[in-house]
Design a protein that fits this description.
Two copies of one chain form a homodimer. By secondary structure, chain A is an alpha+beta fold. Chain A has 17 helices and 18 strands. In chain A, helix 9 crosses helix 11 (290-306). Mean pLDDT of chain A is 95; it is low at 1-7.
Chain lengths: 466, 466
């Protein structure tokens, strides 16, 4: 790395940077471009570069870095792949970004117990590549090829969660560096345990505010005997959503059931060179035995027909399925491409499945009235959907309308018994809604934060105001 | 109630009792028999009666009781049905036992979303009776007809956990009275959420040490189209356990797969008037479509045969299945009946499935060498098994040998990557093993405890030494 000598004016003479450089040498960067890159995620939230970026190579090194920061009361911001969507990696109060990208070793695969342990920087695709000869896979798929540490930290879920659960259900244990540099191991390899407080679940979803996750123990699954995927367009949005609701209520164990509205389908056709009907559409995937998959597909086909769905377009070959899901995962970029030079403001909510049609239909009406460009996509089997506002952040009026519409949608979801975010997390973007959703319980979250991080150094300014 | 006037000498003039009596009238009891009954669970742990027992009828009332106790720094011990197994309800330092038995309302059933909300005193059987016309059921079944609040507090699991998970996976949210009497609501009705710290999972398994759970929101399931159960005896223990391991590793979605050793089968034949072979035995249950259940049964039958299993004895009628599972659930009482006047010391560990044979076989050898009477039963699909030492607590030598054998088993489980308790919890009985299992992480548990209960009033002396 050539960054060692590219020290910026602001950090010259910074004692934290000097101590860390002594520790890390070239693995500490203060170059403007590296700092800028680590100061933002994929969202519209403004960039806040850290004072320096430390490229850690082991848990012990992370602990050393955190200890230096603790001594100087300097914030610590963990960085995985930077694919979060609520500003989770921004260094709001300066500090040291710890880039986990070099902690990319798969430490252990226990095929007979369906578990593995990875360093936090291993990405989900890297893990699945590593597993390819074992007959096992890790199903959680938030779209981006995120790091597993980052996915644990943000309680990620995505398209497969309807069947396999989220990171909450699939993390068995963690190695965490605490705010004072101590290292703890949570959870374990047993499938269940009643031994003490569930620290694993406390750190999953804590967005780096309670400590730095350096290793993750995960549950694995056998690759299903049969997999098939299908696309089905509907006459209208209501029909598509009602088909989802009945599918879930019928207990059909679909592996993926994704909704894309006609705006998103148009964007996807253009961006991914597809030729789908520009209509509200569901993407399905079925896992199981040959017979089970056929049973599921038949049952879902009947439900779809009942609600105005057209014929299923089947994607049976693995490469066609991959193309389909890649197109789905590229939704965000496809939406951005609808308006060159724009930024995306992605937001998500999640409601009980019986409230999904009401929540989406009212939100769709809001969008139409607002004249904003905001395709809807969603992991609708969980009751989870996303808007992606395609905006010009310099247009104050557009930003104000976006903010108002987002707030209306979140408050609607809460009124329907839902949550202000199904999977993107709170970050800096949804702090006001956390209080609306959890009320007095937020004071308990604050007490826990202060118990583990009394100086508010671990990713400060995220989730909670301290 | 006639307890109002039965005040004991110790509590006369106790200001806490006086304040609570003003609040609760006859719903506060200081009678010796009520206090004694609330001072112990079903385990061998000694009785520690509380100063008084408060029969709460609402969350608000629990909050009032806790506030009185907080003001006087008097311990609070939540009491469900008293069926815990590690001394969780004993009032080690005196205090007020809050009996949740009258908070027995099912508050809400949302059939279309497969969730419900109950007061903490509702038992699992009561809930399932309430649900009988909805086509839904709540699967978690620890054997005892425990309260759902108590099951949440101890992270209960039991026979169905291999398919449906434990209370960890099936509690969607909680109402909790904190140590200072504030009331919080955790979680919600959405299937997933990334909104802040996972307080639900923190309170699940906290054994009353962080607050009093007063309401529980639970996940429900559709009653399977088909259910069948079978019993299969094996030539030897090793064969039975290896059949379990291969069943789980093959991904066959059995709903129950329970092991009972020949000592337990003998006890069960005597106690429940059954006529099973006195051999290591597996009890199975299969849930699914007619076709799915047949597929599962066939696959498991082949595996059993491979490992020396005999023919399957099928129990297809619901009443026969109930009789079978009742016999399984009565294992503890059946074992006690082997030695009239004895007490049971039930202990459990859980290991990765690949280590189950090793752990059970070595433990069996230990038992045989020790000359102790200790049948083995287990929810072996999870890698979880139990010993029930049938002991005379007044025989110091027997108690010492029991303690030594228990410790050897726990340390063996930990060495194999397991946990010191799969489902009974820490209570007072396994505090020393919590540290062996979790090391430095226990200090984090302690910090959380002190953050939420700085005066150590919530069920003190359980899980952690403060």
């Amino acid at each position: 790395m050539s960054t060692e000598t590219a020290e910026t004016a602001e950090t010259a003479g910074d004692p934290v940077v000097e101590e860390l450089r002594a520790l890390l040498g070239a693995r500490l960067s203060t170059s403007d471009s590296v700092r800028e890159q680590h100061g933002h995620d994929e969202s519209y939230h403004p960039t806040h570069p850290p004072d320096a970026v430390a490229f850690a190579e082991s848990t012990e090194q992370v602990a050393e870095i955190v200890k230096v920061c603790a001594r100087h009361r300097r914030p610590v911001i963990p960085f995985g792949t930077g694919t979060s969507l609520e500003g989770q990696v921004a260094a709001l109060h300066g500090g040291i970004s710890i880039d986990m990208g070099r902690m990319n070793q798969v430490l252990e695969v226990n095929a007979e117990d369906l578990d593995c342990q990875v360093q936090a920087g291993v990405t989900r695709k890297q893990l699945n590549t590593h597993l390819r000869d074992t007959g096992l896979f890790f199903p959680i798929d938030p779209g981006a090829d995120a790091s597993l540490g980052g996915m644990a930290a943000t309680r990620a879920s995505g398209t497969n969660a309807v069947r396999y659960g989220t990171m909450r259900e699939n993390v068995l244990g963690l190695t965490v560096v605490l705010a004072d540099g101590r290292v703890i191991h949570t959870g374990g390899r047993a499938r269940k345990s009643a031994a003490g407080y569930d620290l694993t679940r406390l750190f999953v979803g804590s967005e780096g505010t309670l400590g730095v996750i350096t290793e993750v123990r995960l549950r694995l699954y056998g690759i299903p005997e049969a997999t098939s995927a299908a696309v089905c367009a509907f006459d209208d949005l209501e029909g598509a959503i009602n088909a989802v609701i009945l599918t879930i209520q019928s207990g059909i164990p679909v592996s993926r059931i994704e909704f894309l509205d006609e705006v998103q389908m148009d964007a996807l056709n253009r961006y991914s060179k597809m030729n789908f009907a520009v209509l509200p559409t569901l993407f399905f995937e079925f896992h199981g035995t040959e017979r089970g998959v056929a049973e599921q597909a038949e049952a879902v086909g009947e439900i779809a027909k009942e609600f105005g769905g057209g014929d299923f377009r089947w994607e049976s070959k693995p490469e066609e399925r991959n193309k389909l899901w890649q197109a789905r995962h590229d939704s965000y970029y496809a939406a951005l491409a609808l308006r060159p030079g724009s930024k995306g403001w992605a937001t998500d909510v999640c409601v009980p499945i019986s409230k999904l049609a009401e929540c989406i239909l009212e939100t769709k009406r809001d969008i139409e009235e607002s004249k904003l460009l905001a395709p809807i996509v969603g992991h609708v089997g969980d009751g989870n959907f996303h808007l992606c506002f395609i905006i010009d952040p310099d247009d104050a009026d557009e930003m104000a309308r976006t903010e108002a519409l987002n707030e209306r949608m979140v408050m609607r979801a809460l009124a329907l018994g839902g949550t202000c975010t199904g999977e993107h997390g709170i970050g800096t973007g949804k702090m006001q809604f956390l209080l609306a959703e959890h009320g007095e319980a937020v004071s308990v979250m604050r007490a826990l934060k202060l118990a583990l991080d009394p100086d508010n150094l671990m990713n400060p300014g995220k989730i909670l105001r301290i």
